[in-house]
Design brief:
- By secondary structure, the protein is of the alpha/beta class.
- It has one domain: Class I glutamine amidotransferase (GATase) domain (Rossmann fold, 3-Layer(aba) Sandwich), CATH 3.40.50.880.
- Helices cover 25% and strands 36% of the residues.
- The chain is built from six helices and twelve strands.
- The strands form three sheets. It has a seven-stranded mixed β-sheet with strand order 2-1-3-4-12-11-10. Strands 5-6-9 form a three-stranded mixed β-sheet. Strands 7-8 form a two-stranded antiparallel sheet.
- The N and C termini lie close together (8 Å).
- The structure holds glutamine.
- Glutamine binds next to helix 5.
C-alpha cells in the first residue's frame, strides 16, 4: 500500500515513520511530480493551515487534490489537515478544499489551553486512545448527513469520518499508539 504524506510544512515526518512501522510504503509529497505518483491514500498533516493552503496553490496542487478527494481518494487530515478539508471555518474566511461536511473552529481552545494531552474513545477504533492537541481546532457542527462523529472530548467533536475522509483535531502520529493509522490504512484498501 502506498500513502503520500504532504510534506510542504508541519508535522509530516512522524506520519511517515508511523506508516513505515505499519508496513505501508509512505512517501513525501513536496512537489507536483510527487503528487502525481501512484497512491492509495494521502495524509494532510498538522502545521499552519494558512501556509499550507498558500503552498498548495503555489505548487498547482490545490485543484487536482480537491478533485481527487471528491472522486474518492482516501485522505486523513490531522489538525491543520482537518481545517483544510472542512467545508466551513467559523473564524477564518479563506478558501479551503471544503470536501468534508463539517464546520470547524480554528485555535478553538484559545491560547492558554491551546495544547494538552488526554485519552479518549474513538467509535470503531477503540478506547484509551492518546490524543495530543496542539493549538487545535474542533468540529463545531456536522453539516453532512454522511459525516459520522468518531470522538468527542468535553462535548466537542474531535474526530469524524465521511466516506473515505478521516479527520482528527489531535495528532495521533505523536503518540506511540498505531490504531488510528491502522484504521486509515484499512480505509485505503
Ligand atoms: N492552529 C493551526 C492552524 O490553524 C493548526 C495547529 C496544528 O495543526 N497543530 O492552522
Amino acid at each position: 500500500m502506498k500513502i503520500g504524506v504532504f510534506a510542504l510544512q508541519g508535522a509530516f515526518a512522524e506520519h511517515v515513520r508511523m506508516l513505515h512501522d505499519l508496513g505501508a510504503e509512505a512517501f513525501e509529497i513536496h512537489s507536483l511530480s510527487d503528487w502525481e505518483k501512484e497512491k492509495d491514500g494521502i495524509i494532510l498533516p498538522g502545521g499552519e493551515s494558512t501556509t499550507q493552503v498558500k503552498l498548495l496553490h503555489d505548487l498547482g496542487i490545490f485543484e487536482p487534490l480537491k478533485n481527487e478527494i471528491r472522486n474518492g481518494l482516501p485522505v486523513f487530515g490531522t489538525c491543520a489537515g482537518m481545517i483544510l478539508l472542512a467545508q466551513n471555518t467559523t473564524n477564518d474566511d479563506r478558501e479551503h478544499l471544503a470536501t468534508m461536511g463539517i464546520s470547524v473552529r480554528r485555535n478553538a481552545y484559545g491560547r492558554q489551553l491551546g495544547s494538552f494531552h488526554t485519552f479518549g474513545t474513538m467509535e470503531g477504533i477503540g478506547e484509551d486512545i492518546p490524543m495530543t492537541f496542539i493549538r487545535a481546532p474542533y468540529i463545531e457542527k456536522v453539516l453532512s448527513p454522511e459525516c459520522e462523529v468518531l470522538a468527542k472530548i468535553d462535548g466537542n467533536i474531535v474526530a469524524a469520518r465521511q466516506g473515505k475522509q478521516l479527520v482528527t483535531a489531535f495528532h495521533p502520529e505523536l503518540d506511540a499508539d498505531f490504531r488510528v493509522h491502522e484504521y486509515f490504512l484499512k480505509m485505503c484498501r
